[in-house]
Amino acid sequence: MSSGVTADLHFMQPPPDGVQAYIAINANSAGERDRNYTFQLKAVHIENYRERQDPLTLDTAGFQIFSDRPTEFIRDGEVQVEGYYEESIAAIKEATGASRVVLFDHTIRRRRPEVTEDAPDKRQPVANSHVDQTPKSAVARVHRHLPPEDVPKLLSKRFQIINLWRPIQNPASDWPLALCHFGSVNPEKDVRAVTLKYPHMEGETYGVKYNENQKWGYFKDVRPDEFILIKWF
């Protein structure tokens, strides 16, 4: 067994059965986001995935790290978006064999507790355990980001939603990314749909409830010349 650390993770404590969980995206003036559920802290063993002998892949674990992949489109923490998008599309096609890749947004996260505004370049690291997409929100993404005439054909086939995660300036030693092996998650008991309330729309993610059978880990000190692909759907 590989080494690791023990850390407190935030897990969802949902509202009563039959009550739809929700959370506001934008924080109020006190820095708090309105929601109708709470979180509980649980001390969890987090494995150092770099020490594993068996490979962790998108298909076997739900995530995969790629090393020795420097980018020319990030300098001093600034992203040249157009070039980086093209490079990311090529990387995802190579990794998955996908015939078509559409990037629909990006987020730059920096730990700045004094910032309460939600914007793509002002978001904080997410401290709570979650899954970015549900089946409902995944289908909504196809409708929102693809041409209407393409949607029926696309939804009749397998599609995936994948996150490309990369440090943009320094190794990710502060606030590293914790990842849960999907084979250790009970989809019937461990997740609960959460409505995301934006100012002009709504989305949906899964909150994750604690289960001692879940297997968590991280890739220690991910470098800017590395990236992680995470399969959300």
TrEMBL record:
Record field: compositional bias (Basic and acidic residues): 113-124
Species lineage: Eukaryota, Fungi, Dikarya, Basidiomycota, Agaricomycotina
Lineage: superkingdom: Eukaryota
Protein's UniProt name: Uncharacterized protein
Coiled-coil intervals: none
Biased composition (Polar residues): 126-136
One term of GO molecular function: oxidoreductase activity
Family, similarity comment: Belongs to the asaB hydroxylase/desaturase family.
InterPro entries in the cross-refs: AsaB-like
Disordered: annotated span: 113-136
